[in-house]
Design goal:
about 425 residues; alpha+beta; Immunoglobulin-like; 4 domains; 6-stranded mixed β-sheet; 5-stranded antiparallel β-sheet; 10 helices
C-alpha cells in the first residue's frame, strides 16, 4: 500500500474514532498522524541538505587498466540524519573493488568519503554514477530516494592487435588504389635532396642542407600511391544470424581498431563508418536531479537509456594523424549493435559522397546480396574495395566468386591470429 493510501486510511480511522468517542484510539491515531507528517517533512529536507562531488580524472582507458573513483558527500543541514544509504551506481560490465556503498548516520557539517576502483575489462561506453541517496526516519514510516550531479562516462578502447610485415611497395589489403594521379609524394619518406628549382614549395626546402651547400636545397620524397582506407564496420544484428554474436562482433570491432591503428602508423589517411549505433546517444548529459518514491524508480531514472533512435551512419571523416586515430578509437569503443539497416544498403546510399582515393575495407559477419551489389557499384565508380568476413566461412564461400568477378577480394577472419597475418596476405 502506498504512503498516500496509508495517510488516507489513518485520517479515515481518526475521524471514525472521533465520532465514536474512542479517546485512547483517537490519541494514538493523532500521534501516528503527526509522526507521518513529521517524517515526510524531515526526510525531504534532509535529502536537499546533502551535497556531493565525484572525483574521477579518467575519460578514456585501455583494456586492463584501473580507474580510481572517489565520492565526497557533505551534510550541510541543521539537523542530524539518523541514516543515509549512499550508493554510486557502477557499470555491471566492469569489476569493482573498494567501497561504493555505505549506510551511515550524518551529523550537520559531516563529510563522508567513498573510494573504489574499476577494472576496464570490457570495451564500451560505461556510465559511472549518478550517486543514489536514500534516507528515512527511525520508524521506517517514510523513505526518500534522490540522485544528483551528472554521471561520469568512461570510454574503454578495444584491443589493438599488432599487424606487422607491411611494405608500401607491395600490394596489400589496405594498399595501392587506383588514383587519378599515378604518383604521389609521401612527406614521411625522405629519399634525398636536390638543388632548388623555381616553383618548388618553400615548405620542402631542406635548410640544413642548404646551409652546408651555401645554396638552396629541396627535399626529394619517395613516390607512393598509398593514400589510406575507409573502414566500414557492419554491426547489423540480423547479419550475425544469432550465432556467436558477442564474440564475432567484438572480433570485428577489434579488427576495425587494429586496422585503423596500423594504417595511421604508416602516416596514411584513415576513416571509419558503421551502421551501428553510438552509445553516446543513450547517455544522460543533462544534470540528473530527481526524487523518487521507490528504489526501482530511482534506478530506472538514473541509468542510461535502453535504446537509441539514431537513424544515420556512425562515422569519422577520413583524415590523417593521431587526432583522427583517437576519434576512430573512441568510435570503436562506443559503437553498438543495431537493427538500423544492412551494410550493403548503407554503402549504396553513402558511397557517392566518399573520397575515391582511399580503399574501402568492409568488415561484416555475412556477405549478403545487397553487399555484393554495393561492392560492384563502387568498383564501377573507381573504388578499391576489400571485404573481410568474421566467423562465417560458409557465407564467404557462397559469394566469393561473385565478389572476385566484380574485382573485390575477400578474406575470412576467425580469430586474432588471422587478423595479425592480414598484412602478410598478398592480393
Amino acid at each position: 500500500m502506498s504512503r498516500g493510501r496509508w495517510l488516507a486510511l489513518v485520517v479515515g480511522v481518526l475521524a471514525l474514532s472521533y465520532v465514536l468517542r474512542a479517546g485512547f484510539a483517537t490519541f494514538a491515531l493523532y500521534v501516528v498522524l503527526w509522526l507521518l507528517l513529521a517524517s515526510r517533512l524531515t526526510v525531504g529536507r534532509g535529502l536537499r541538505s546533502l551535497h556531493h562531488r565525484r572525483l574521477c580524472h579518467r575519460r578514456r582507458a585501455k583494456l586492463g587498466e584501473l580507474v580510481d573513483v572517489s565520492i565526497e558527500l557533505r551534510h550541510e543541514g541543521r539537523w542530524p540524519l539518523p541514516w543515509v544509504m549512499i550508493e554510486d551506481l557502477t557499470p555491471a560490465a566492469l569489476p569493482r573493488t573498494g567501497e561504493a556503498t555505505r549506510i551511515t548516520p550524518l551529523r550537520p557539517g559531516q563529510t563522508v568519503t567513498l573510494r573504489y576502483q574499476l577494472t576496464a575489462t570490457r570495451r564500451g561506453y560505461h556510465q559511472i554514477g549518478p550517486l543514489l541517496l536514500e534516507t528515512g526516519d527511525l520508524f521506517g514510516l517514510a523513505r526518500k530516494f534522490s540522485a544528483g550531479d551528472q554521471a561520469h562516462y568512461l570510454l574503454v578502447h578495444p584491443r589493438i592487435v599488432p599487424i606487422g610485415g607491411y611494405s608500401v611497395a607491395t600490394n596489400r589489403p589496405i594498399g595501392e588504389v587506383r588514383a587519378e594521379r599515378r604518383i604521389f609524394e609521401d612527406p614521411s619518406r625522405l629519399r634525398g635532396v636536390r638543388e632548388y628549382r623555381a616553383g618548388d614549395k618553400l615548405s620542402h626546402v631542406h635548410w640544413r642542407a642548404s646551409a652546408r651547400a651555401a645554396a638552396l636545397q629541396t627535399k626529394v620524397f619517395e613516390p607512393t600511391t598509398m593514400i589510406g582506407a575507409l573502414i566500414c564496420l557492419d554491426m547489423f544484428i540480423p547479419a550475425f544470424e544469432g550465432r556467436g554474436v558477442d564474440q564475432r562482433s567484438e572480433l570485428a570491432v577489434t579488427a576495425a581498431a587494429s586496422l585503423a591503428s596500423y594504417i595511421s602508423s604508416a602516416n596514411q589517411r584513415v576513416g571509419f563508418a558503421s551502421n551501428g549505433r553510438d552509445a553516446a546517444d543513450r547517455a544522460r548529459f543533462d544534470p540528473i536531479d530527481f526524487e523518487a518514491g521507490s528504489r526501482s524508480q530511482a534506478l530506472r531514472l538514473a541509468r542510461m537509456a535502453e535504446q537509441s533512435h539514431r537513424l544515420r551512419p556512425f562515422e569519422v571523416p577520413v583524415g590523417r594523424g593521431p587526432t583522427t586515430l583517437n576519434h576512430i578509437l573512441d568510435a570503436t569503443a562506443r559503437v553498438e549493435l543495431s537493427d538500423f539497416q544492412p551494410v550493403g544498403a548503407m554503402l549504396l546510399r553513402e558511397y557517392p559522397r566518399l573520397p575515391r582515393d582511399v580503399s574501402v575495407l568492409v568488415l561484416t559477419p555475412r556477405v549478403e546480396q545487397s553487399l555484393v551489389e554495393a561492392c560492384s557499384a563502387m568498383r564501377r565508380s573507381g573504388f578499391v574495395v576489400h571485404v573481410f568476413v568474421f566467423g562465417n566461412e560458409a557465407s564467404l564461400l557462397r559469394q566469393r566468386g561473385r565478389l572476385l568477378a566484380a574485382g573485390v577480394h575477400s578474406y575470412g577472419i576467425d580469430d586474432d591470429a588471422h587478423l595479425a597475418q592480414l598484412a602478410l596476405t598478398r592480393l
